[in-house]
Amino acid sequence: MNFFVGFLKFSPVFLMAGLMIAKFDALIAAPIATIYAAIVAYATEKFSFNDLLDSAVENVKEMQLVFFILMAAYAMAEAFMATGVGAAIINSALTLGLNGKTVAVTGLIVTGILSVATGTSWGTFAASAPIFLWLNHIVGGDLMLTTAAVAGGACFGDNIGLISDTTVVSSGIHKVEVIHRIRHQGVWSVSCLLLAAIVIFIVGAGMGLPDVVGNAGDAINQIPEEVWSNLNAERPSAVTLLNQVQDGVPFYMVIPLILVIGVAIKGLPTLACLGIGIISSLILGLFAGTVTSITGDDGFLKLMMTGFADAGSWVIVMMMWVGAFGGIMAKMNAFAPLSNFISRNITKVRQLMFANGLLSIAGNAALSDEMAQIVTIGPIMKNLTDENVEASEEDMYKLRLRNATFNDALGVFGSQLIPWHVYMSFYVGIATAVYPLAKFSAIDIIKYNFMAMIAVSSILILTLTGLDRFVPLFGIPSEPDVKIKKQSEKGSKEEFTSTNKAAAGK
């Protein structure tokens, strides 16, 4: 009977996963799963509607600051795409000249930088794929290697970018500052990018690719009219960026990105960093002529409104529903059986952290959406660590930093290795639309996505073995500074919590 009740409490997760795998939009899947979770909570625990509503709302309230950061992040992304910051980054790299051996490596590096500037892997891929796939066509590079490199680079900023929604949300769930997250994983993330660049170059050189040099202008000129139409319908900001790459923008338009990264390293609050990025792109855009007016339909304020609307129309609404889902699941202690199983089978903190990483990958594969994984699996990881680890507050904070990194990195990069993931469907769709001369499949892209392979494998291996201590700022505390609580201690805590809940119920 206890097994059946436990399974029933966990079943809303299976429902959410099933809906996502069945290609339901997250804005539909999350409300359905939330309503079902409320029904299960009422049936198994007899909670009243008001109790469940309070739990859902309280969980959403904890995300309020994250909502403001996301709106500002989306606004800055629009500003960087439209004022020439993104185009300046691309043109700076392309002035070096590309050939068949280097086009994939350059695609990786450029999209890595661009994704940090814009905070969006989807937007970065949509904006960069037309340039690099057609540039690859001109210089005779390997199409799938270049496509995979652009996909892997586009995810780089989504994992470490100050304005990335996944970075912000995962940090918020685990109660860590975004700036601290970036510092914690910065050296590791950049090392993964550089190692992936080396591997891609070696693979490209081994293919015997030609040394013909091409340029972005020729590549953009070869883009068919129907591709422009598709891009204009799906990603208008990508069209603006492509036009700016072709027409050229002053190189000083990279300054807003440099400013944002600089003040972030200095430790300014996230909202302040975003504000500096928005204001500096406006001022420099006025000088460069990429910003022609402040108000009006084509004005800078319209960009801000578009960013706010994009955040509010999808990611914030989805987060509110999934936050409500998490609140109800926590109210009925739905994840207790999973937490108990893991806690009974680990003896060291690193084993627990490694298990948290595996949970992130499993959740990503089950839900087929990295954001759904972050907000669903994240609270489980947090509770597992809080309830099973004995450590100082400083050391616990370091463990939370790793959990947030797990949640995000294994969500974003892990998605690149899951054929049925929505990420891969998007990438295949965009690649097919912008380069109709070839047939793309998820497997073809995955087998060359060295960036994702390196990121996923390295973070798990470094965590389990303790080798992360050799990566600056990336090490997490080990025994005896931290240790797993004894079963008797955990049992006493659970008994105390149950007693308090019972008393509160009376």
General description of the model:
With 506 residues, the protein is mainly α. The protein has one domain. Helix content is 77%, strand content 1%. The protein has 24 helices and 2 strands. The protein has helices spanning 2-21, 26-45, 49-61, 64-83, 85-94, 103-118, 121-139, 143-160, 165-173, 178-206, 216-221, 225-234, 236-247, 255-266, 270-288, 300-331, 336-344, 349-367, 370-388, 393-415, 422-434, 442-446, 450-465, 487-505, and strands at residues 389-390, 483-484. The chain has a two-stranded antiparallel ribbon. Helix 6 runs antiparallel to helix 7, helix 14 packs antiparallel against helix 15 and helix 19 (370-388) runs antiparallel to helix 20 (393-415). The radius of gyration is 23 Å and the shape is globular. Belongs to the NhaC Na(+)/H(+) (TC 2.A.35) antiporter family. This is Na+/H+ antiporter NhaC family protein. Residues 497-506 have a biased composition (Polar residues). Pfam families: Na_H_antiporter. Residues 485-506 are annotated as: Disordered.
What's a quick, concise take on this entry?
The chain has 506 residues and is an all-alpha fold. It contains 24 helices and 2 strands. The protein has one domain (7-505).
Given helix and strand content, the structural type is: mainly alpha
Tally of DSSP β-strands: 2
How many H/I helices? 24
Overall, the morphology is globular
- Low-pLDDT regions: 492-506
Element order: H for helix, E for strand:
HHHHHHHHHHHHHHHHHHHEHHHHEH
Radius of gyration over C-alpha positions, nearest whole angstrom: 23 Å
The overall pLDDT, averaged over residues, is: 83
The termini sit apart by: 25 Å
β-strand amount: under 5%
Multimeric state of these chains? single chain
Q: Which range best describes the helical content: under 10%, 10-25%, 25-40%, 40-55%, 55-70% or over 70%?
A: over 70%
Spatial strand arrangement across the major sheet: 1-2
Biggest pleated sheet: 2 strands, antiparallel
The tally of structural domains comes to: 1
